[in-house]
Design brief:
This protein has about 625 residues and is of the alpha+beta class. It has five domains: about 60 residues, no CATH class; about 200 residues, 3-Layer(aba) Sandwich (Rossmann fold); about 120 residues, Barwin-like endoglucanases (Beta Barrel), CATH 2.40.40; about 120 residues, no CATH class; about 55 residues, BFD-like [2Fe-2S]-binding domain (Arc Repressor Mutant, subunit A, Orthogonal Bundle). It is built from 18 helices and 22 strands. Strands 9-13-10-12-11-14 form a six-stranded mixed beta barrel. A six-stranded antiparallel sheet has the order 16-17-15-20-19-18, sandwiched between helices. The protein has a three-stranded parallel sheet with strand order 3-4-5, with no helix packed on it. Helix 5 crosses helix 7 and helix 16 crosses helix 18. The radius of gyration is 28 Å and the shape is globular.
């Protein structure tokens, strides 16, 4: 089994890499049987479903090929359309180049955030700024892309949608809404159909998703059995067995793998009526039944490193966030684990670049720059750096890594080369570091560097600055928006050490606290965040607030490691030392961390190793 993910696909030679994997399986016969085959771990839920309905610029619906004249004629005939495109549309990167050049004057963005996620993302921002009409369908008001939109259309979220999705094993499943549509929000299909109808197009008057699915199923089967042309084989994507369903039958549809052939009796297929495995008989989707090898000459990434940009930038996801944080960024539970954008690099590379762990660095390419905090995970090879894709202008001052990524794409798929951009890393000098926990949002744009994290009952801001602050109390009050001279304001300052701590209390409840130091080592955010859950601060809490640490030993659980059970780093480390724990399984048995989804197990292994090294030292 070859399981591959975005490291293969996101390359200027991504299509050739995938074809090479398929070639290896064809050459060795490892296809069509249990436990073998190439398997793409795709980056999107329902990525297969999007392709089935022609959701790419060079595809027709029902997996038919735009470049194939017969396929074009089949679709045009089925739809009864007066015309059909015979040239591929613009893929994502090409599209935004065309927008900036003025060749495309209107764009409709649905369920994506290209100003953050595209390569050379500053170009995408410029393009939208020049576009005459930008429409965006979203469930969030503020995103980097929505800030450029002229028209915002309220759409439905995942739990409000009704239809089908398809997994990577070709399994079609019903997606049933479990929440009502909020306000005036509409489903994507409804918005598209309403606009098309208002523009005068026929064929969009569907009563619901079941009618759209029925058209989809009928098109997949249309002229799909012995089409009388030896140059074509019957199309594998065939849902004839699912055509003609009523609303009730569609609602009751069980998961089924396509192709779903029409039953001889005419009865509808069910979960057992699909096709569990393709190519088991050794025949493939060509007229003669034989597979095709595709010659793939190896080639290096388009842009090579050099003296100016000596490292390779790799981008990707972290455990607790998803895409551009428009949804997951609202979750305090997910934000507890990794609070800031970071650049992960080998310690020796960091030394050569003049940066150190825990401090800020500027990451620069030929296309853009960003600021992030340096870390050493221990998993990065020399010569490479990793930056997560999630942070954006809604959550940080300067952390859109898409702005750094080169815009070179695969010539066939159009997939950008997200995994290889020459980069340099250098120190981002600041005079002081700080953070704020506040029940109110702050106007942070004046700060040199900032990042915002959603907490429980508060917003957390990490920041740093270069300017000299003459009167820190006045500066802190202004930042927090406190103009009442009689406010319950407690503070502590050590000018020699460059330390300033302050808190704002309203009706005995903590409203905000601020901590500033000339060094990045600052008090524990984890313990301070617990004070916002208290209806009334005790005297010990006020003292701890000034100290930046609890009076009671062991009250600080530390940063979250296990999000499933909310287990902090300090709790885990204390348990390891106290009970002499040796393995992640022993940690799970003791404090539950790692006992659910298991995604924190690598971090548990790292903590165990760090503790063992410290004990030996």
């Amino acid at each position: 089994m070859t399981a591959f993910s975005q490291g293969v696909n996101q390359s200027s030679a991504g299509t050739d890499k995938v074809n090479s994997i398929i070639n290896c399986h064809l050459a060795t016969g490892r296809l069509g049987k249990p436990g073998m085959g190439p398997f793409s771990l795709t980056g999107q839920p329902n990525a297969m479903g999007g392709r089935e309905v022609g959701g790419l610029a060079n595809m027709l619906a029902a997996h038919m090929e735009l470049a194939d004249p017969l396929h074009r004629e089949i679709v045009q005939s089925f739809w009864g359309s007066p015309a059909i495109a015979d040239q591929p549309g613009l893929k994502a990167v090409e599209l935004f180049e065309a927008i900036e050049q003025g060749r495309v004057k209107a764009v409709w963005v649905i369920a994506t955030n290209p100003v953050v996620s595209l390569p050379d993302a500053d170009q995408a921002r410029r393009a939208l700024a020049r576009c005459q009409l930008v429409v965006s369908s979203d469930i969030m008001l503020r995103t980097d892309t929505n800030d450029a939109a002229h028209v915002l259309l309220p759409a439905l979220g995942w739990g409000e949608k009704d239809g089908t999705v398809t997994s990577s094993e070709r399994r079609i499943s019903r997606q049933r809404a479990f929440l009502p549509a909020p306000g005036e929000a509409r489903a994507d299909w409804r918005i598209l159909c309403d606009v098309a109808t208002r523009m005068g197009f026929d064929g969009f008057r569907f009563a619901g998703p079941h009618e759209i699915f029925d058209e989809h199923a009928r098109l997949s089967a249309y002229r799909n059995a012995g089409i009388g042309n030896q140059a074509h084989a019957p199309r594998l994507f065939d849902l004839a067995g699912l055509a003609g369903m009523s609303q009730q039958q569609f609602d009751a549809l069980s998961p089924v793998q396509w192709p779903v052939m029409a039953a001889p009796s005419g009865s509808l297929a069910n979960a057992s009526g699909g096709t569990a495995r393709l190519f088991a008989d050794g025949r493939f989707a060509h007229p003669d039944g034989r597979a095709r090898f595709i010659a793939t000459a190896p080639r290096a990434p388009f842009h090579a490193t050099d003296d100016e940009f000596p490292l390779v930038l790799n981008t990707g996801r972290v455990r607790d966030q998803w895409h551009t944080m428009t949804r997951t960024g609202k979750s305090p539970k997910l934000a507890d684990h990794i609070a800031e954008p970071f650049v992960d690099m080998h310690p020796q590379d960091a030394l050569l670049c003049g940066v150190s762990e825990g401090k800020l660095a500027r990451v620069t390419t030929r296309w853009g720059a960003m600021v992030a905090r340096v870390q050493h995970s221990g998993g990065i090879a020399r010569g490479s750096v990793f930056v997560p894709i999630h942070w954006n202008s809604q959550f940080s001052s300067d952390a859109r890594v898409g702005a750094l990524v080169n815009p070179v794409v695969d010539p066939v798929s159009g997939e950008p080369e997200f995994k290889h951009t020459p980069v340099r890393v250098e120190e981002f000098r600041v005079s002081w570091h700080g953070f704020v926990l506040s029940r109110e949002d702050l106007q942070a744009d004046a700060l040199t560097y900032w990042t915002r994290i959603q907490g429980r009952q508060f917003q957390r801001y990490e920041f740093a600055g270069r300017e000299t602050i003459a009167e820190r109390a006045a500066w802190a009050r202004q930042l927090l928006g406190i103009d009442d001279p009689n406010a319950d304001w407690i503070e502590y300052e050590d000018r020699t050490a460059g330390v300033y701590h302050a808190g704002h209390v309203v009706d005995d409840r903590l409203q905000a606290c601020i901590y500033v130091c000339t060094r990045p080592e600052l008090p524990s955010r984890a313990w301070l965040s617990t004070l916002f859950a208290k209806e009334r601060l005790e005297d010990a809490d006020r003292i701890g607030l000034l100290l930046g640490q609890p009076m009671e030993k062991g009250a600080d659980a530390g940063p979250t490691v296990c999000s499933c059970f909310g287990v902090g780093r300090n709790t885990i480390c204390d348990a390891v030392r106290k009970h002499d724990l040796k393995t992640p399984a022993e940690v799970t048995a003791c404090v539950k961390a790692g006992g659910n989804c298991g995604s924190c197990v690598p971090e548990l292994k790292k903590l165990l190793a760090e503790i063992r090294v410290a004990e030996v030292a």
